[in-house]
Design a protein that fits this description.
alpha+beta; 4 helices; Glycoprotein, Type 4 Pilin; single chain; 4-stranded antiparallel β-sheet; 8 strands; Dna Ligase, domain 1; 27% helix
Length: 183
């Protein structure tokens, strides 16, 4: 069962759009959570798509702020600061689609227990770490081992670092976007 109601999901998705527009228009946005539930500290990622293509994705693994503020900040960062893409322009705003992933706390996990489609991964070795959300291996049709390898690659580690002392942690995520909500 979903932790966040359809109404809360709509509020968060709208917030992501409003935050990006406010940043581009250089105006302030009220980030006071409208409910106690949206005021809880949670890690989350905001992913932006344009015409079905990834346009930016930024998030906080660890809970730092209210979920409401986290969604606003990560949406703006995904739009303007994802180093893989040029910043979003005002002209693109109507074409952006938002997907939000609200994370559970991280837990150490044995690599054999990783479930594709259920777990997101954070692999750490020394100062390097890589994170992939639970939906990523499904999108790429990866099995468990490829998911572990690709998370290592994301961290800038050898593909098999998960077998040689890298710390493997998992989380789950409540993932939703505009297309997943009923109108």
């Amino acid at each position: 069962m979903a932790e966040y109601s359809e109404s809360e999901r709509h509020q968060l998705l709208q917030l992501a759009h409003d935050a990006v527009a406010a940043a581009l228009e250089k105006r302030a946005l009220d980030l006071s959570p409208p409910t106690d539930h949206l005021g809880e500290q949670r890690g989350a990622f905001t992913t932006l798509h344009e015409n079905g293509e990834l346009r930016g994705c930024v998030g906080y693994v660890f809970p730092m702020y209210s979920l409401y503020r986290t969604i606003a900040e990560t949406a703006v960062a995904a739009a303007l600061n994802d180093s893989r893409f040029i910043p979003v322009s005002v002209d693109e705003l109507p074409r952006l689609q938002v997907e939000i992933s609200i994370l559970s706390p991280l837990q150490p996990i044995d690599p054999e227990e990783v479930e594709v489609g259920k777990h997101g991964l954070l692999i750490t070795y020394g100062q390097r770490r890589g994170l992939l959300l639970p939906q990523v291996p499904l999108e790429h049709h990866w099995d468990r081992e490829m998911f572990l390898r690709q998370t290592c690659v994301k961290a800038g580690l050898p593909k098999d670092a998960w077998e040689h002392g890298a710390k493997v942690e998992a989380f789950t995520a409540e993932v939703f976007g505009e297309e997943s909500l009923s109108e």
